[in-house]
Amino acid sequence: MHIPFDILGKFLAKARSNTDRNIETCGILCGTLKRNEFFLNTLLIPKQTATSDTCTTTNEEEIVAYQMEHDLLTLGWIHTHPSQTCFMSSLDVHTHYSYQQMLPEAIAIVCAPQHEPSYGIFRLTDPPGMGIISACRDKRTFHPHQSDDIYTASEPGHVSLEHFDFKIVDMR
């Protein structure tokens, strides 16, 4: 998966007003398939509601309509942890499960601007992560799982950060 290097800085700039107020911001990573490789060429920042540790998209039909109109695939998602470190919370792994179930190559980018490392690119392990999350019936927003290898940093070769142009569509 080819990702524009500038996506991190540009997303954080768009999220800055929320980050300054300790509120998460999320976006949808979109792109195309060319020569059997995914190219992230659009960052959608949808309407959303958020707190210091959650972010939920709203008006999903607007997201889908834009993607259909521009022939874009959902390649994953991106969100901030305004005051926390860079990791995938239990809510994050449950959210990412649906992305990776639709597209096994899907990624989750977490930006933690107040910490080092300031970002991470993650995927659920398969096995065991996808199976553990699929079987999880805990309804609490944040809860432990019986394994600590549910997700991993995206392995080299799966993601390539490169310099190329991309579009940001802020729907908020």
How would you portray this structure in words?
With 172 residues, the chain is α/β, with parallel strands linked by helices. It has one domain: Cytidine Deaminase, domain 2 (3-Layer(aba) Sandwich), CATH 3.40.140. 26% of the residues lie in helices and 33% in strands. The chain contains four helices and eleven strands. The strands form three sheets. A seven-stranded mixed beta sheet has the order 9-8-7-6-2-3-11. A two-stranded parallel sheet has the order 1-10. The longest helix has 14 residues, at 7-20. The model has no long low-confidence stretch (mean pLDDT 96). It comes from Dimargaris cristalligena. One of its GO terms (cellular component) is endosome.
Mean pLDDT: 96
What is the total tally of β strands? 11
- Return the CATH architecture: 3-Layer(aba) Sandwich
Which regions have little confidence, pLDDT < 50, spanning 5+ residues? none
The helix/strand order is: EHEEEEHEHEEHEEE
In whole angstroms, how far apart are the ends? Answer: 27 Å
In spatial order, strands of the major sheet run: 9-8-7-6-2-3-11
Domain MPN: 1-128
Keywords: Hydrolase, Metal-binding, Metalloprotease, Protease, Ubl conjugation pathway, Zinc
GO molecular function: K63-linked deubiquitinase activity; metal ion binding; metal-dependent deubiquitinase activity
Protein name: MPN domain-containing protein
